């Protein structure tokens, strides 16, 4: 089972960016932990990150043709702004789990709205970087159940 992990803008700065909100783990550490969880569950996870909306759209399109079974996505700020990413996820119809490191509902009002949530197989919010592991678990279980 092939999974794709997509991280959006500014997540390349994990470990440096606002550690009180996002923690001290680096993106590389987060990716390794998520891939290890996928492997533990018998799946393969490929991590990918971009700060560019169009690149994220193109990566979602490519996933559809690469045999990816599902996506774990932290679209970062694009969660709240990108109809293009939403439409790419809808067009490919790949199951996905939306992840947010912080509890976006306890933050600024503009972070309360997600363009992705209504289509997501699941949403993990506010568990720090452990949310990636939880998202992988949920997605693998959902895909395994059919």
Please give a structural write-up:
- By secondary structure, the chain is an alpha/beta fold.
- Helices cover 39% and strands 18% of the residues.
- It is built from five helices and five strands, in the order E-H-H-E-H-E-H-E-E-H.
- Strands 2-1-3-4-5 form a five-stranded parallel sheet, with helices on both faces.
- Strand 3, helix 4 (83-92) and strand 4 (96-100) form a beta-alpha-beta unit.
- The longest helix has 16 residues, at 130-145.
- The model has no long low-confidence stretch (mean pLDDT 95).
Q: What keyword list fits this structure?
A:
146 residues; alpha/beta; five-stranded parallel beta sheet; 5 helices; 5 strands; 39% helix; globular
In short:
This protein is α/β, with parallel strands linked by helices and 146 residues long. The chain is built from five helices and five strands, in the order βααβαβαββα.
Q: What's the shape? A: globular
Rg, please? 14 Å
Number of E-state strands:
5
Name the strands of the widest sheet in spatial order. 2-1-3-4-5
Q: Percent helix among the residues?
A: 25-40%
What is the topological layout?
Layout: E1 2-7, H1 19-22, H2 27-40, E2 44-49, H3 53-65, E3 70-74, H4 83-92, E4 96-100, E5 122-125, H5 130-145
Parallel strand pairs: 1-2, 1-3, 3-4, 4-5
């Amino acid at each position: 089972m092939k999974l794709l992990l997509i991280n959006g803008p500014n997540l390349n700065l994990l470990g440096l960016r606002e550690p009180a909100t996002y923690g001290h783990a680096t993106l590389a550490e987060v990716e390794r932990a998520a891939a290890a969880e996928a492997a533990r569950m018998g799946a393969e996870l490929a991590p990918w990150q971009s700060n560019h909306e169009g690149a994220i759209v193109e990566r979602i399109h490519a996933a559809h043709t690469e045999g990816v079974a599902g996506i774990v996505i932290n679209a970062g700020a694009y969660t709240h702004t990108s109809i293009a990413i939403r439409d790419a996820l809808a067009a490919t119809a790949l199951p996905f789990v939306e992840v947010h490191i912080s509890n976006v509902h306890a933050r600024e009002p503009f972070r309360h709205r997600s363009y992705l949530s209504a289509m997501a197989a699941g949403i993990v919010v506010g568990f720090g970087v452990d949310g990636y592991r939880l998202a992988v678990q949920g997605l693998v279980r959902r895909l395994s159940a059919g």
